[in-house]
Amino acid sequence: MKIGIITYRQFPYVSANTSIGYIIGENIARRDGYEVVFIGHKQDPAQNNVCEYKGIKIRYFNDKIPTKKSARIKNIVQKFFGDLAFLFNARKLRKIVKEEQIDALVCVQSPPETAWIAKRAKLKIPCYLYQLDPFHIHGDVENLKQRKQFLKLLKSFSGVFATTPLQRYYEREKDFQYLVRKGLVKECKHPTLVKPKQVEVQAIKKDKTRLVYGGTLYRGVRDPKILADLKKALSDDIEICFFGGCDNAQDFAMLKQTGVICGGRVSPERLQEEYRKADVLINIGNKIKMQDASKVVDYMALGKPILHIHQFADLTSTETLEKYPLKCCVDAATLSDGAGSDLVNTFINESKGKSVPYEKVEKWYEEYTPQYVADSVLEMINKK
Q1: Which of 28, 67, 77, 152 has the greatest number of CB atoms lying within 10 Å of its CB?
Q2: pLDDT tens digit string along 15-41?
Q3: Terminal Cα distance for the chain, rounded
Q4: What are the tens digits of pLDDT across the range 88-101?
Q5: Is 154 helix (H, G, I), strand (E, B) or coil?
């Protein structure tokens, strides 16, 4: 069987969601009787020479790199004409499916564009939606127009692989319950629990306890102010190292002024190195309530102490961390007013130097391993 996996970005310009598609694809491709083809957008001329990832073929919708002008035109067309905006990509997808003799297609969403392309292509093979992010829910606000569009979109798919909060949403919402009744929803965790490579970390002389956060900070989702408030709440012998960027350049400057050590964006390999050097890893929960925790799974694989900062009663993240012993969950509001300072400082001082063996983490969180998730995907695809 040959399975196509659509992700918006392709190597080397991967996103977190692309990485999840790649992890599943790699695991499936290792099995007897299965082949995988990655499908997506070409974003840079450097990709003209990229046709595979770890031996798995990559096919592109586009030969020409989209310009800002063409992107604006496409957005306008989509606004007024819906999925007609994806007509060109849909035609290319049909061609790829025919040439590669693909038997089933998995569309990793977000962004939703991968799903719209598959819908417009009207393929005669089973298509599945791997849904990592909500389609029509933004924070606490539900866009009724997008909800209606999404209900139509779902009719083009043979099934949905959904994260825990999305599966629960489908179970309780009347319009979506038919998916659950008909067995068209398969709960899938983030398949990122992977045993870390045994890398010798060079011992560095540290005068301060080192906290590390890696990722992008957005005012509307993960506000940089949270990291600044954390820095103010810490004792002088604790430092924060931030590797990533902000959607607003002023926020990056503000973090530096607050005393946060800002290393900027770094390669995935360098970021993993910084994680290994850290005494405690920081996770900041999103404001998006329908989004599953993912970074904490990467952290748990490393066995490091985790300081989780949530912005609301974040049941998904706290549930994910429930079995993990080296964690501290604190509300962002208590950092802002100083009430959480004692809790955070005590946790850092008591947990630094401690770790949890990967074998124990894997036993507790088997459903987050690539093998388990790939099994779940294939179980639905192979269901008669």
Answers
A1: 28
A2: 888 999 999 999 999 999 999 999 999
A3: 14
A4: 899 999 999 999 99
A5: helix
Residue (of 381, 369, 379) closest to 20 by Cα position: 369
Residue environment code for 100-112, b if the CB has 16+ CB neighbours within 10 A, otherwise e: eebebbbbbbbeb
Render pLDDT for 150-160 as a digit per residue (tens, 0 to 9). 898 999 999 99
pLDDT at 313: 64
* Residues pairing with 262 in the sheet: 242
Angle, vertex CA 134, rays to CA 132 and CA 136, nearest 5: 155
Q: What is the dihedral of CA 136, 291, 2, 31, to 10 degrees?
A: -170
Q: Is the peptide bond before 111 cis (omega within 30 degrees of 0)?
A: yes
- The token pair at 144 is 């009724």
Buried b (16+ CB within 10 A) or exposed e, 143-174: eeebeebbeebbebbebbbbbbbbbebbeeee
Q: Residue 202: phi, psi to the nearest 5? A: -65, 125
**Which residues are within 8 A (CB) of 104 and not within 5 positions of it... i.e. 6 or more apart?**
1, 3, 4, 125, 126, 127, 128, 381
